[in-house]
Prior knowledge:
single chain; Growth Hormone, Chain: A; 376 residues; globular; mainly alpha
Amino acid sequence: MLLLAMAVSTATASTLGIIATFVIDDLDIDREQLGWVVTAIIVGAGLLSPYAGKLTDRIGGKSAFQGLFVASAASFLFMAVAPVYAAMFLGAAFGAVAQAGGNPSTNKLIALHVPAGSRGVVTGIKQSGVQLGIFLGGLLLPFIAEAIGWRWALGLVSLVAIALLVPASLFVPRDRPDHGAGVAVGDGPLPRSIYWLAVYGFLLGFGGSVTFFLALYVEESLGRSPRLGGLAVGLAGLTAIFGRIAWARFAERLGRFVMPLTAIAVLSVVASVALLAATNAIVLLWVGVILTGLSSSSWNSVGMLAVMDEAGMERAGRASGIVMLGFLIGLGIGPPLFGRSIDSTGSYDFMWMVSIGTFLLASGVALLWSRFAPHN
Length: 376
């Protein structure tokens, strides 16, 4: 259920990227305008994340968890019925609420119910839900949108999200009374490591936001079909499922987080270089896609594991919200900026070069963190 919750609560923005061609054509908008809808979801989620974290600590993990499915279903439904471009932002608002609550509620449940030593694999599995959603969306949505239209495709996703509320209510355990759900807990200052993670997450988010244009890049720069573009996105998601589980397990066994996060940032640089060069050799597209799945798309499992380890059970929700604020702001401001650069230059080269520079900077931040906090 943790895996499925992360899949649906974070799927609104990635879904728009996968079916971008259909939405742009039907609503008669450009890439930058589509980017602003994505930004509304992700930046909105980032701004709401600290509040969602505090609310989760107060009302309990299960109650917050159930709300994810309702907000996710509403986001897809309102986008599916949006008559004009401006109406898409109503669905974006619900998508922001769902995404803001995803990590705080699931991290809270893990901190409460999973013993230390077993959290690495569980966190990796639940974080891979994001990529499972991307994989299934990339694999299925282009076909569904071609067959019955993008609006009906989103309507089907909405039905799936609301149907998952039933097993979420039946099978997810409630917070035990001694864990303090419903009272103010964890109000003390957060460890400084949480703010290092937030800065690192901002950079990984901004550099990683290029993946929202991956399907369009495959179509427009490489001259391939929307189906192949969806397959590229889906392969990145599939690879990241394994990447998130493996990185989290490795980090927990290592007992340190800076080294894995540094390696992830360096691999992200290599991935963007390969995607930039894919116009010269199509094989580099698949190299870049696989490395993206193993790097920038996988960092969250290590990051969220570090949050739970550093902040503890009582502050897991609030600390998750701070880290996700950094990550989602970075992830959200990228799409309109990159969309404008593509519209104005007719090229994706600038986008890939900016992502390379951002990932290099993230590597530097991780190394600096290791100097000031060597135990991490």
